[in-house]
């Protein structure tokens, strides 16, 4: 479709293709506390036939939504058209664009080259040490073809899983796209994750191939990676080969026959490969994310619906102009943001992107601004935690650079506090760039709630409204929509194209985690608290479960607790997310040591922090570990994290009446007071 005839900041408000639900339609549909009639009758809706309601033909809103998505899907190349937009008869297992066949890599790469854009830059890549590489769409096509041919030469075939643990180097993108091209679901594991975390992900997915590198640059140092992945693959018989990119030149342990250098295998391959098409529902990737238990969930995404929504949201949320914009998403490919908004969305839209390998303060705190100036970045998408870090470093740093190319700013990962919003707008956006606060999740696959630039008035701290095509609500415990000014749970009341298709190998957990809470209404439970303001705009309030959000990364309390108790000196542990001015939340742990070790706390806590970093990864290292004699528990033995959060945030401890032993909090406070 043609680009909307407006630019952000020109003050005009233009209706987009599908109108966003206005506060008035919301009122008529929802605050009446009864489910909207169009939801009850969506085709194949879980409501159809429920409670004796005869299933009816779809009413306009649902049909319009499907027509909207069909138009968006039409922007992609399909080898075989779909016969049905949505099949929801097996809810909550959705099938979008059933019968349609496409190749995701063709849509991200080949079709742009075929349309004459081979010379357009796909990535301006910059390494942490300062080396650079410019990759055009034609280059990308050759590299992806070579990589695909290499994977074929290893005997991989459609449906086999490939694990990828790589730093932010171009080969990471080549590897993902080669997998997509061949119908091999990839499982990308963040480079900072421990061998144990990698191992459990490889095992769960049964990966046949692992792609990694010799080492990775982190804060100016070359750190080993292959040595870590070797530790993981010692216990994973499913892995037949390890393909190793040479990045740092570090010496690596080597297993003859199993290990292969990328430059030997891939570089020798022909640079042409004819892609075949796959079913719209063919698995594209698995991405593990923390849930409320210790075991991460493998979130499954498929092809047609996912690509449709990531492309659409990337284009609209950032008002992308592929011919002129230079877009930079600062996430790591190990997270969903990297999948959807570094790889699949931008490439499907033929964007020119910046990709940067390293940390933002290597070798100096102006590194990001220097990159923005050098490449003329016009759309910059980052996380509130980094904005707050920039604030801490000081506004004199961005002031040294020419940031006038910036026209849209994005935010993701956690609620952006108004103070950070204003700083971002002033010091990066010259008071005029719209800030697109995007709410979404690994599970949603793509942006769901965001103020579309130019079409929404600025409201610092609010993600505002679902994007066109999406429906979301804030509801109470029973699932009834709350009124303006009220709080509740965020739910998604209509299926969406990029929704997760399940938890890898665990259908029960999928139903249980996301659909059981409001099973009677068929709502997806996001796990976030939210409220409507007086205009009917949505404000996200953080997780309502035991998932912490540290620097925009999801970490479950249970995961850290289980790492802590795996340390011999620890008898019991409880972990809470305490608010932190830079990281949003910080991990604070309370541990009971085994008899005898009670007061040599200093050494134990330092060792424990390292232990958690080894078990999970440095991002899970507790900010603080307090040694306590007891933990506050209810009569049924559940740890009352609320009280521990009070202690961690140095507040007056709240209501203790449901504790099995109400003196426990005094004991904890007294103990901490004399150990301080
Ligand atoms: C939180 C990251 C408020 C939220 C894309 C969600 C946000 C979790 C925002 C998903 C935002 C993400 N405003 N909260 N703009 N973006 N969150 O799976 O709690 O790593 O449930 O996906 O991050 O984290 P995930």
TrEMBL record:
It catalyses: acetate + ATP + CoA = acetyl-CoA + AMP + diphosphate. GO terms for molecular function: ligase activity. Residues 115-503 form the AMP-dependent synthetase/ligase domain. Keywords: Acetylation, ATP-binding, Ligase, Magnesium, Metal-binding, Nucleotide-binding. CDD domains: ACS (cd05966). Its EC number is 6.2.1.1. Mg(2+) binds at residues 565, 570. Residues 19-36 have a biased composition (Low complexity). PROSITE patterns: AMP_BINDING (PS00455). The modification N6-acetyllysine is found at residue 638. ATP binds at residues 413-415, 437-442, 528, 543, 554. Its cofactor is Mg(2+). CoA binds at residues 218-221, 337, 361, 551. Belongs to the ATP-dependent AMP-binding enzyme family. This is Acetyl-coenzyme A synthetase. It comes from Streptomyces mordarskii.
């Amino acid at each position: 479709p043609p680009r909307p005839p407006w630019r952000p900041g020109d003050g005009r408000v233009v209706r987009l293709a599908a109108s966003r639900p206005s506060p008035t339609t919301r009122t008529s549909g929802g605050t009446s506390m009864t489910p909207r009639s169009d939801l009850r009758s969506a085709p194949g809706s879980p409501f159809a036939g429920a409670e004796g309601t005869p299933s009816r033909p779809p009413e306009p809103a649902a049909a319009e939504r499907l027509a909207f998505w069909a138009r968006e899907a039409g922007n992609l190349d399909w080898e075989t058209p779909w016969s049905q937009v949505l099949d929801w008869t097996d809810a909550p297992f959705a099938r979008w664009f059933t019968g349609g066949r496409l190749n995701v890599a063709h849509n991200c790469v080949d079709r742009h080259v075929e349309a004459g854009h081979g010379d357009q830059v796909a990535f301006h890549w910059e390494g942490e040490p300062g080396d650079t590489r410019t990759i055009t769409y034609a280059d990308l096509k050759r590299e992806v073809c070579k990589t695909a041919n290499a994977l074929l030469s290893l005997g991989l075939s459609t449906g086999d899983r490939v694990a990828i643990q790589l730093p932010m180097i171009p080969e990471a993108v080549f590897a993902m796209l080669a997998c997509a091209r061949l119908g091999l679901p990839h499982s990308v594991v963040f480079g900072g994750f421990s061998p144990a975390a990698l191992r459990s992900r490889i095992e769960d997915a049964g990966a046949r191939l692992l792609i990694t590198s010799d080492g990775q640059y982190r804060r100016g140092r070359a750190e080993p990676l292959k040595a870590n992945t070797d530790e993981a693959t010692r216990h994973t018989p499913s892995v037949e080969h390890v393909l190793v990119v040479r990045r740092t030149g570090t010496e690596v342990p080597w297993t003859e026959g199993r290990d292969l250098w990328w430059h030997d295998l891939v570089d020798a391959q022909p640079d042409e490969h004819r892609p075949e098409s796959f079913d719209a529902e063919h698995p594209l990737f698995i991405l593990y994310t923390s849930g409320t238990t210790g075991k991460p969930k493998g979130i499954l995404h498929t092809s047609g619906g996912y690509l449709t929504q990531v492309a659409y949201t990337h284009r609209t949320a950032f008002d992308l102009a592929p011919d002129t914009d230079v877009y930079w998403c600062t996430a790591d490919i190990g997270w969903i943001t990297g999948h959807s908004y570094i790889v699949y969305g931008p490439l499907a839209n033929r964007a020119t992107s910046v990709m940067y390998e390293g940390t933002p303060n290597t070798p100096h705190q102006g590194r990001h601004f220097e990159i923005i100036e050098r490449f003329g970045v016009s759309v910059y998408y980052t996380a509130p935690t980094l904005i707050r870090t920039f604030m801490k470093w000081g506004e004199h740093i961005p002031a040294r650079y020419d940031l006038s190319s910036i026209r849209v700013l994005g935010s993701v990962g956690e609620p952006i506090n108004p103070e950070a919003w204003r700083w971002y707008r002033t010091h990066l956006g010259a008071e005029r760039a719209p800030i697109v606060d995007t709410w979404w999740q690994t599970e949603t696959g793509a942006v769901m709630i965001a103020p579309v630039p130019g079409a929404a008035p600025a409201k610092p701290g609010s993600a505002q409204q679902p994007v066109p095509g999406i429906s979301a609500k804030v509801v109470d415990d029973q699932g009834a929509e709350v009124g303006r000014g009220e709080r509740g749970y965020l739910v998604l009341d209509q299926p969406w194209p990029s929704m997760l298709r399940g938890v890898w190998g665990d259908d029960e957990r999928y139903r249980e985690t996301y659909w059981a809470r409001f099973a009677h209404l068929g709502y997806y439970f996001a796990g976030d608290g939210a409220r409507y303001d007086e205009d009917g705009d949505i404000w996200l309030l953080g997780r309502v479960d035991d998932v912490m959000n540290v620097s925009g990364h999801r970490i479950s309390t249970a995961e850290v607790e289980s790492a802590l108790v795996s340390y011999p000196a620890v008898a019991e542990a409880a972990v809470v997310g305490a608010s932190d001015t830079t990281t949003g939340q910080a991990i604070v742990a309370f541990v009971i040591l085994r008899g005898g070790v009670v007061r040599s706390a200093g050494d134990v806590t330092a060792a424990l922090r390292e232990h958690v970093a080894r078990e999970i990864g440095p991002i899970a290292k507790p900010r603080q570990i307090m040694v306590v004699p007891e933990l506050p528990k209810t009569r049924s033995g559940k740890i009352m994290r609320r009280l521990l959060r009070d202690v961690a945030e140095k507040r007056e401890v709240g209501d203790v009446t449901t504790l099995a032993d109400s003196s426990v909090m005094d004991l904890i406070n007294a103990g901490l007071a004399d150990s301080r």
